[in-house]
Amino acid sequence: METWLIVVITLCISALLNLLINPKVSKNNKLPPGPFTIPILGNFLIPLRKFSEVEPILRKHLAKYGPIITLRISFRPFIFIANHTLAHKSLVQNGAIFADRPPATLIGKLISRNQHNINTAFYGPTWRLLRRNLISEILHPSSVKSYSRARKWVLDILLNRLLSQSESGDPVIVKDHLQYSMFCLLVLMCFGDKLGETQIKEIEDVHRRLLLHSSRLNILNIWRSLGKIIFRKRWQEFYDFLRDQEAVIMPLIEARRK
């Protein structure tokens, strides 16, 4: 308890000093209205929830703040538009203004290798290259036929796993087999090779672990220098995740290059 008390007091003092040193930041930051948040402490109100649970929060505040509101989630502001006309005006008529993405959080930047994937890349040459590769190769209608053998291979895997478990007399959990089969297909599309079950499980495990612990890692996005001291064990846990991911993925990438 004493340690966490020191942490909370330190964060509060840091926030107050930041407000005193930069008093004009909040005045010049013209964001849509939203629920009041206390500096630092207010940011912890929503990160404790799943992102899928944001909708009830939005419905609660829309009547009070209007069709565009600001909520602070994961230590940064998110702007939500709940009106068709305003959404069309923002994303279609003024699409070029809002086409870019904001800088990733510290953790997001490390996970995406400096925003080098289609989900986080800035609007520019890298994003256009990734999008062109996705549209012209993976999602192009001609790829449906080219992946017919892969789909048959995955279908055989699914049927064999379902048949094997049904014959064992144990309850058949269809969801697990479907997820595994689809993961086999995605791995084949990504690395261009049919991997064994052990390798596929390793890839699935490193990604699942990172996803399951992502909410615990959000706290690492605040006060980079100070946070690495206070949350050093959690930082070490995060680096372990990245090291395990690299150990599993990089040999497959190098093999594909050869």
What distinguishing features does this structure have?
single chain, 258 residues, mainly alpha, two-stranded antiparallel ribbon, 13 helices, 63% helix
Write up this protein.
The chain has 258 residues and is mostly helical. It is 63% helix and 5% strand. Strands 1-2 form a two-stranded antiparallel sheet. Helix 8 runs antiparallel to helix 9 and helix 10 packs antiparallel against helix 13. The chain is globular, with a radius of gyration of 23 Å.
**Largest sheet, spatial ordering of strands:** 1-2
Report Rg: 23 Å
Note the gap between the termini: 54 Å
> Element order, helices and strands?
HHHEEHHHHHHHHHH
Show unreliable segments.
17-28, 41-45
Number of strands: 2
Element layout with pairings:
Blueprint lengths: L1 H20 L3 H4 L25 H12 L2 E6 L2 E6 L2 H10 L12 H6 L13 H14 L3 H5 L1 H21 L5 H18 L5 H16 L1 H4 L6 H7 L1 H26 L1
Antiparallel strand pairs: 1-2
Please outline what is shown here.
By secondary structure, this protein is mainly α.
